[in-house]
Structure prediction request, 269 residues.
Amino acid sequence: MPDTNTAAAAGFQNAEAYEKVMGRWSRRLAPLLIRFGGLSDGDRVLDVGCGTGSLTFTVPEIANVAAVTGIDLTEPFVEFARARNSDPRISFQSADARVLPFEDNSFDRAFSMLVLQFIPDAARAVAEMRRVVRPGGTVTAAVWDSYGGRPHIRMIWDIAAVLDPAIDRHHLFRPLTAPDEMATLWRELGFLDVEQTSLLIRMEFSCFDDYWSPFTKGEGPPGQLVASLSASARATLTEQLRRAYLADRPDGPRSFVCVAWACRGTVAA
Ligand SMILES: C[S@@+](CC[C@H](N)C(=O)[O-])C[C@H]1O[C@@H](n2cnc3c(N)ncnc32)[C@H](O)[C@@H]1O
Prediction:
């Protein structure tokens, strides 16, 4: 097992908090990613870094698959997903994407949604997905375009960095988030018919509190940032973010685009 727990390092720990920060939105991305990657009746599907199960639970809604296995390194997420499952074709287990506990050629398709950017040696995880998918099967993944495609999160990092120039915005440049970076890796790993695209969803918030309060629970990288601030720095950030969210209009609903990079390739014979 690799030394670093990449999930804990990125602040993933609490399933209920994760649902508010991301799970409610990654459910919207899941059908787009599955349709981009392809899915057929009878497929055996692996969801790498399944989190609370957004993609895993969507797979059987799109095709009459044989089985879907979700794996994740965050045990509370695996337990949360398991507790919500009533489909005998779906199973969840704890595992590291870099050392998948499956035999070669065990699946027809592997998906990984919003995970690889948290794994510094992401190539190792993609190579593992290639190993466990049969020749002719597909490996499909998505990462958020964190630099150019997530305005509601950029607002947090940019305002925080203006208030305190010592704040490091390396989160905007995570592995595989640059244009064509995923496709380059897929080709290096020998996949065939490699294609990278952009997938767009909208995140809709009912008011500033609906937008902001999930980030104050310590979950994920923005949650880690907020938790690291002093009470006064946090209050200033909150006030400036409120101004950014409102943009001189009364509090109420706002809609933000969110764009993911997605890449798929076919496992060579
Ligand atoms: C942003 S969440 C995405 C979860 C889910 N796929 C979704 O879209 O809602 C990132 C997930 O990657 C998982 N993760 C991070 N490093 C991992 C690793 N090395 N192996 C397995 N899962 C990992 C975290 O536990 C977390 O559930």
Remarks:
- The two ends are 28 Å apart (CA to CA).
